[in-house]
Design goal:
Structural class: alpha+beta
Oligomer: single chain
Radius of gyration: 13 Å
Helix content: 25-40%
Shape: elongated
Bound molecules: zinc ion
Number of helices: 2
Number of strands: 3
Amino acid sequence: MAICPVCNGLREVLLICSNCGQTMVESGKLMDYYDDYSPYMEIDLMKLEDGYPDNHSDHKCAHLYRCPSCQKDDVIFIKE
Ligand SMILES: [Zn+2]
Ligand SMILES: [Zn+2]
């Protein structure tokens, strides 16, 4: 079974905000937000799903990153 290196603390991903150049902070697995914050995140996730057709792939783990400076959200897919 594949293991996501970020979920398991094996690897840290450094992501730079494309908006302001700040280092983005990992905000957790995207799937966690589906459960806990679905009303709040619904619109953003709809947009993300449109832009990332691989979202439901079994082989990638979606992580949400947020810029602490401008609050821009970004989702990256960790290859498991
Ligand atoms: Zn993960
Ligand atoms: Zn930013």
